[in-house]
Design brief:
heterodimer; A: 201 residues; 32% helix
């Protein structure tokens, strides 16, 4: 649930980028940080291993102005994607308000995407949250690899695998070069804010 | 930064050191992990089993988080962490750039003796790995 401070009129919204390892979650945050560096006053925090894999989380907070007199700050987190870090992933999900599921469009990653989504549902269950009702956006990442001849899953296949029941907004994206990164971010912010508006007023 | 590949002989020697210097001193569980949360060696006294894989991943995350906090206050690192529980406590100590030694013990052991034993163990491990 979003953190709302009635006295100082602040709302903190937690958005988590979730998905299989090496899918581009950190790349999403890095692009956002790079693009809006002039407007983001704080540093991005990345807790990673020596070989640049996310170990705990990446953290990027920024303000998006006022809504109905409340200062809204958005906190973006990523989870570590590697299978062995599930206990850590679960910790990062605590108190989540909105989720971007970053799926990897490479053919060989097909099953990992599905497994990761199943685990996301289980992890949310443990906090009494429901994947079907929480604000969620799908991002099918790495479509820039098409030009390099890497075999990719079609967006239709991705939709069928991951989004046939959930039916949430989905974007084909390229986190590395920034394609649809901002569109994804805007979508999840607007979904999350409209879902917490009921709590506010 | 990658750490050197450890031979079977080195791993055996590390197992032995952990057993000899810590488990025999009354420590419940001890683990040597790398900074990515992979377990290099683990020993226990046979009475307490824990989910070492999850523990190691969380410990590495915890250590990374504390290191980031250290940087915020102008320290390069806090090389030693201690979590105290009602009956069990956990002591984390950096062995080198790449490794972390985690010692779990009951309240019958004092923190002082753990620190002494851990320092001794770390010297021994470093001489095995980097000699």
């Amino acid at each position: 649930m979003a953190f709302i401070n009635i006295r100082s009129k602040e709302v903190q919204v937690k958005i988590v980028y979730y998905g299989p390892g090496r899918g581009g979650k950190t790349a999403n945050l890095e692009y956002i940080y790079k693009k809006y560096r002039n407007n983001i006053t704080t540093e991005m925090v990345s807790l990673k291993t020596h070989d640049d894999r996310t170990l705990f989380f990446d953290f990027l907070p920024f303000d998006v102005g006022k809504i109905k007199g409340y200062d809204v700050s958005i906190q973006l987190y990523t989870v570590p994607g590697q299978v062995k870090y599930n206990a850590t992933r679960k910790l990062v999900l605590k108190g989540v308000d909105g989720i971007v599921f970053v799926a990897d469009a490479m053919v060989e990653q097909r099953q990992r995407n599905i497994d990761s989504l199943i685990q996301l549902r289980e992890n949310l269950d443990s906090y009494n949250l429901n994947l079907n009702t929480i604000p969620l956006v799908m991002q099918y990442n790495k479509y820039d690899l098409k030009d390099a001849g890497v075999p990719l899953l079609s967006t239709q296949t991705m939709q069928q695998d991951l989004n046939s029941q959930l039916r949430v907004p989905a974007f084909a994206a390229s986190a590395l070069v920034g394609g649809n990164v901002i569109a994804t971010l805007k979508k999840i912010i607007s979904l999350t804010l409209s879902s917490i508006q009921d709590q506010l007023f | 930064m990658k750490y050197p590949i450890l031979t079977e002989k080195q791993l055996d020697a590390i197992d032995e050191i952990l057993e000899e210097k810590l488990i025999k001193a009354g420590v419940r569980n001890v683990m040597l992990i790398d900074m990515a949360g992979n377990t290099i060696s683990k020993q226990d006294n046979g009475q307490f089993k824990i989910d070492t894989m999850a523990f190691a991943a969380l410990a590495a995350g915890n250590f990374a988080a504390v290191e980031a906090m250290a940087k915020l206050v102008g320290e390069s690192e806090f090389s030693l962490l201690f979590h105290k529980g009602e009956t069990a406590s956990v002591h984390f100590s950096k062995v080198s750039q790449n490794f972390l030694l985690i010692t779990m013990f009951q309240k019958d052991l004092s923190l002082g003796i753990i620190r002494l034993k851990v320092t001794d163990t770390i010297d021994a491990i470093n001489s095995i790995i980097y000699s």
